[in-house]
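Saturday, quiet lab. Running sequence design on the structure tokens for the scaffold JK sent over.
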């Protein structure tokens, strides 16, 4: 086992998942500016829901994982420094690099008096050219130079929320971008030592690694928007089923099965911002990406497709009680960032509806947005009781288990199933499934 000291700066989904995984194998220090977050993590409490992360967090703490809110000499003394801070988009749709610039500046200040030569690894999602054109100049302040005082690599992540630990433990690929072969080998050795099985490790340069990340997310978003377009066509064609279509075209090895699940549209912290950031970046370098704009616009319009189904089945929305089943943007997470459910709720409120929200994990986060404008219930039965309509937005297992008797407690047993996870045979129940024509 390689004896290395590792720092991970930024403890969001990516950073914390990496910290608790590597923390069971190496000496790891997790860094985050949020003091409350640091305090909770030190007690073995994750501030977000992710399957298995509590288990790995407690195991890593037993192995010596520690947390701090400061970038100091101890952090700079580490062999590897991963930077995993957030890179949101600003109000103009461009990437906001303020977090990564601030972290880079703090590293540079402490690096000026360091005796060791750390390898700084950028895992944050950044637009092409950022590592060398933005981060490197900041790190080279105080008469520092890359390759002499530090090494700089780009190492994008490919995690899925809800499967973050699984994807950290068994990544489909590890991409390492850089120009210094010794630094690349150093990080490669870390990964080879961390993983039980041989991983697919690809070496390239910094800018190509940055493009790979955006291309990956943009292509997956494109597949989602494509199958949603097919679902909307199926909706208007009797006896068509988008799932059967997706199943068959997914058998084609040129297409593949993944991300062909039609639904209310993609959300979360990655796809919406990464597609938009890539659109803006392309525009700034003189390329108008018609395709990516279409992907974004198709996803945005999917909200209207869901609302259309609701309005077709409830003629007058004003005063009607609508149960929204699923508030998180996907199952197995409590993340509601860019969740289509929150957009549907806003539209329902504008139409005078009484909204009741249900979700196994995301109620508290939703309450931050809507407060007492809607009601919340931890009981699925309470959500359905006396409702005029229920809309399944997130494919949680609990909703897949809904039975006809559960639906019949509704005032008007109308189910809008945007994920096609249930099948009601009772003629007293109106079920409308997105992508299935009748």
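Result came back. Writing it out in full:
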């Amino acid at each position: 086992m390689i004896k290395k000291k590792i720092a991970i700066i930024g403890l969001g989904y990516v950073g914390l998942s990496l910290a608790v995984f590597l923390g069971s194998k190496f000496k790891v220090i997790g860094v985050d500016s949020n003091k409350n977050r640091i305090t909770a993590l030190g007690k073995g409490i994750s501030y977000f829901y992710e399957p298995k992360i509590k288990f790995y967090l407690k195991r890593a703490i037993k192995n010596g994982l520690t947390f701090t809110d400061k970038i100091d000499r101890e952090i700079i003394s580490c062999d590897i420094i991963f930077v995993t801070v957030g890179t949101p988009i600003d109000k103009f749709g461009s990437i906001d690099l303020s977090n990564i610039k601030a972290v880079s500046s703090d590293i540079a200040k402490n690096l000026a008096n360091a005796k060791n030569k750390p390898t700084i690894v950028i895992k944050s999602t950044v637009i092409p050219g950022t590592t060398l054109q933005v981060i490197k100049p900041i790190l080279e302040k105080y008469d520092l130079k890359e390759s002499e005082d530090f090494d700089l690599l780009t190492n994008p992540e490919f995690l899925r929320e809800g499967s973050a630990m699984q994807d950290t433990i068994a990544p489909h690929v590890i991409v390492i971008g850089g120009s210094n072969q010794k630094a690349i080998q150093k990080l490669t050795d870390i990964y080879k030592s961390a993983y039980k099985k041989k991983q697919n490790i690809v070496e390239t340069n910094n800018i190509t690694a940055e493009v790979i990340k955006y291309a990956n997310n943009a292509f997956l978003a494109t597949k989602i928007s494509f199958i949603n377009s097919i679902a909307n066509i199926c909706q208007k064609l009797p006896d068509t089923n988008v799932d059967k279509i997706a199943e068959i075209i997914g058998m084609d090895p040129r297409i593949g099965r993944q991300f062909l699940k039609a639904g209310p549209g993609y959300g979360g912290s990655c796809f919406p911002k990464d597609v938009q950031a890539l659109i803006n970046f392309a525009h700034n370098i003189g390329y108008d990406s018609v395709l990516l704009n279409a992907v974004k616009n198709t996803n945005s319009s999917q909200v209207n497709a869901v609302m259309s189904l609701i309005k077709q089945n409830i003629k007058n929305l004003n005063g009607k009680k609508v149960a929204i089943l699923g508030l998180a943007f996907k199952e197995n997470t409590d993340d509601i960032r860019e969740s289509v459910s929150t957009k549907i709720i806003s539209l329902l409120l504008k139409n005078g509806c009484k909204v009741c929200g249900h979700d196994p994990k995301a109620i508290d986060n939703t309450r931050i947005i809507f407060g007492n404008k809607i009601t919340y219930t931890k009981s699925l039965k309470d959500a359905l009781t006396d409702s005029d309509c229920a809309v399944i937005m997130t494919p949680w297992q609990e909703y897949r288990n809904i039975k006809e008797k559960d639906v019949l407690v509704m005032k008007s047993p109308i189910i809008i199933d945007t994920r096609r996870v249930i099948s009601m045979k009772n003629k007293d129940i109106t079920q409308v499934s997105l992508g299935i024509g009748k």
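Notes for JK: The chain has a mean pLDDT of 96. The radius of gyration is 24 Å. Ask whether to fix the surface positions before the next round.
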